[in-house]
Amino acid sequence: MNSIDSDRTSDNTYDAIVAGAGVIGLAIAWELNSQGASVLVVDRDRPGAGTTSVAAGMLAPTGELDFGEPALLEMNTISAGMYPEFVASVERVCGGMLGYQRVGGLHVALDRDEAAELRRVHDLQIESGLRADWLGPGAARELEQGVSPTLTGAVLIEDDGAIDPRVLTAGLLEALEKESVEVRVGTEVTAVRHRHGQVDAVEFKNGDRINTRAFVAAVGAESGRAEWIPDEARPPVRPVKGQIIELKGNPAEPICQRILASERVYLVPRRDGRLIVGATVEERGFDSEVTAGGLHELLREAYRLLPDVSELAFLNAVAGLRPGTPDNLPVVGPTSIDGFFLATGHYRNGILLAPITARAIADVVSGGEICGPMSAASPARFDPARTGASR
Ligand SMILES: Cc1cc2nc3c(=O)[nH]c(=O)nc-3n(C[C@H](O)[C@H](O)[C@H](O)COP(=O)(O)OP(=O)(O)OC[C@H]3O[C@@H](n4cnc5c(N)ncnc54)[C@H](O)[C@@H]3O)c2cc1C
């Protein structure tokens, strides 16, 4: 631990300090500020430098539905419902449009095996009360003419949406600035001090120390290895690598109208003509290298789904680390240290889950309780002292 020069202790006290200026930390700061709390956001790098800038930005509770995840579905669905108002509230202050769209999705089967699997998922969507329509090949190609003629069936999901996470991050930053919420870049948290089990100050790599009684760790994939998070509060979050490609198309002639997905790839159109091709899912620790194999796999599957992608220009390829958890649910809420909150583990759905996470953390920082579906995200489920289990 650093030895701290008491002269560098700031007199500024904040109702809350949020570590991490990814989508989760920024959305939390936005909500806390809206509820009247004074808040400081710090990031060791620059805002959006983490996984947020890599994400495709699908807001897709139905399209991302998987077996055995009813609690996640409930969180995702509620958060998707919060999105229009969340975006509008940011837009009202930042003065620009964030480009949120309920763009819809078409999930396509390209052979008989994929059709059987898509049927199973479609059955689950219907059982779960979601809106999803089975389409034959002709009807699907009427909607999306570029889709491979070999398709054997498709599911149309009208409710799923999308947003460019970089535009969202920029909008949140601008809105926070207009609200005089300070976001400090290049400011790395190295310790969170607590006395008698209550947070009282946060310390930074540059030697500064700031008093606060509420601290939110929104540091994404780093949270599982951050030594400054006390052992009893540190969540079992692991990095799950994802590679993604950006292609450039003509905005006047979009290559597709909605999110297109097969079993192995998804394509997300942006309004400016870009097409996002995602994403690999790799267990490789903290490696975030873009690999030839990853790109080959994505482009091969993208071409199989929508042959016209071969006409688009290559813009760039990036890799990011999803904050994964053992049960695929996020880790959001209070820890056993009073005033120390976690907001991490959002895995594949951090952009989607930003509004519901922000609301839950703001409620609990102001003394309320987390209720509803977010109670399934409680950090207590991983705290051996509170579950009686060994870790
Ligand atoms: C390829 C890919 C595609 C994805 N697509 C989607 C999608 O379509 N829809 C969706 O909802 N989600 C998607 N995700 C998931 C989503 O990107 C993440 O869940 C989300 O970005 C997590 O946000 P975060 O704010 O928790 O973390 P991050 O964005 O990683 O932010 C954490 C921040 O903490 C900072 N930090 C770390 N340590 C410290 C410290 N000690 N002190 C101060 N700051 C610190 C970092 O610099 C970073 O800026 C995708 C992810 C990947 C990889």
SSE diagram, text form:
Elements: E1 9-14, E2 16-19, H1 23-34, E3 39-42, E4 58-59, H2 70-94, E5 105-109, H3 112-127, E6 133-135, H4 137-143, E7 153-157, E8 161-162, H5 165-178, E9 182-184, E10 189-195, E11 198-204, E12 209-212, E13 215-217, E14 238-248, E15 259-261, E16 266-269, E17 274-278, H6 292-305, E18 313-324, E19 331-334, E20 340-344, H7 354-365, H8 384-387
Parallel strand pairs: 1-12, 2-3, 2-13, 3-9, 5-15, 13-20
Antiparallel strand pairs: 4-8, 5-7, 6-7, 10-11, 11-12, 14-17, 14-18, 15-16, 16-17, 19-20
Helix pairs in contact: 1-5, 1-7, 2-5, 2-7
Flavin-adenine dinucleotide binds at residues 19-25, 42-45, 49-52, 54-58, 188-189, 218-222, 226, 242, 244, 278-279, 320, 322-323, 344, 346-352.
Overview of the structural elements:
The chain has helices at residues 23-34, 70-94, 112-127, 137-143, 165-178, 292-305, 354-365, 384-387; strands at residues 9-14, 16-19, 39-42, 58-59, 105-109, 133-135, 153-157, 161-162, 182-184, 189-195, 198-204, 209-212, 215-217, 238-248, 259-261, 266-269, 274-278, 313-324, 331-334, 340-344. It has 391 residues and is of the alpha/beta class. The strands form four sheets. An eight-stranded mixed sheet has the order 6-7-5-15-16-17-14-18. Strand 2 (16-19), helix 1 (23-34) and strand 3 form a beta-alpha-beta unit. Mean pLDDT is 94; it is low at 1-6. The chain binds flavin-adenine dinucleotide (FAD).
